[in-house]
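User: Batch of two.

Assistant: Item 1 of 2:
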Amino acid sequence: MLTTAGNLLVEGTEDGNFGVYRASNGEKLWSMPIGTGAVAGPMTYSVDGEQYIAVSAGWAGSLIIIGGGLTAIHDAPSRMLVFKLGGNAVLPATAPRTVPAPPPQTASADSIAKGEAAYNKTCRICHGGSLISGGMIPDLRFMSRDTHAQFEAIVLGGARADRGMASFADTVSVDDVEAIHAYIIAESAKAQGRLFGADRVRQGEIK
């Protein structure tokens, strides 16, 4: 939360809104739907005597690890937003995204449940609750067919260590990896075909 000398509190919220409040009594003065959780704290600066408020809007950090069920908000893209008094820009729409069809599911319900537990123990810290991640960390629901095919080589063999995904061979077993992959396929199948983007978020005018 940002506080200013002008008796204002400025805060982005996890439900996809950005608001300004009166610090002395908490009265909401203005708010706008921004289509994604603003986890980072806002900041303010001035240029040629004109004040701006900026926020890095996106769903990442500790809240993405915890999760919260706000799927439409989680799935919106990250972006930098800057506001000023008298601004009249409209928040640009973002291109919708679709989840690629995952490989056929061949695992049992027990294996998928085992994979969920293993994922939450080992993978969630980076890739987020329910596979929903933000920022530079790949959202595993959008894995390509090629990535699915290489999943064991990536997780155990370090096939993408050059991209920051080190081998986890000392942490998970082959059975664990197969179960985690089954869980990812199950979650991808749930999300497959859904649209993600500004078409699901009410657009607001920057005042």
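Item 2 of 2:
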Amino acid sequence: MVRAVVVGAGGRMGRRIVQTVLETSGIALVGAVEAEDHPAIGKDVGDFLGCGKQGVVVDSDINRGVDKSDVLIDFTTPQVALRSLEIGVKRRLAVVIGTTGFSPGEMERGRALALKTRCVMAPNMSVGVNVMFKIVAEIADVLGADYDVEIVEAHHRLKKDAPSGTAIRLGETIAGTLGQDLQRVGVWGRKGLIGERTSTEIGMSVVRAGDIVGDHTVIFGGVGERLEVTHRAHSRDNFARGAVRAALWVVGQPEGFYDMQDVLGLRAKGNAR
């Protein structure tokens, strides 16, 4: 039985992960962590979620729950996620990170820590989105530089980072396939007299509205035709199921930095992360 602690258990994603852990065989919830001012602190996590007592009290101190755990699952903020990684390294725990919005420096720090433990870090843990990552790379390889690439993402009005981590990963995947660097060719929105589109740029457009869970579309625009690949998330349950699947998988792996391509067996042989 894999024993899990969910960090950010009272958040939109955290609540779905807790519920999914409770409903999944082979994994047990042994800890739930939230910020010290969160209304769930001190309550049984089941009472907070409305699913009956589970014998796990929501705590503000992650250190009180990790001694009896095998894996930390964190969907919070970059700063908190890095702290979870530090604890994972110190306590020799596996870690699953679904947090997005890392700065380049934070991501570098996260990678360094992840290599010292067993960590799955992914901007999107949906099975469908990870299939999309693989498909758009294959499409870009076939179409090459003759087709313009635009990425459009839409999320709920409360999302803090933009573009989404998923949109950035899509852009990085396509840019890498085309021999480009997204930081050099990415265009992060357009306004005014911008002139003609260059042949190498990858455009990013962001929508924030209502309660949209997450939509991502990649447009490959050619002369006389266009090809679009779209993923729409109807609920957060698919992300939660992916996170729990990653937790069950990573505890049995050697030390290393993994993502959902590894968990799902989608990474091409010899193509290390």
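The longest strand covers residues 214-222.
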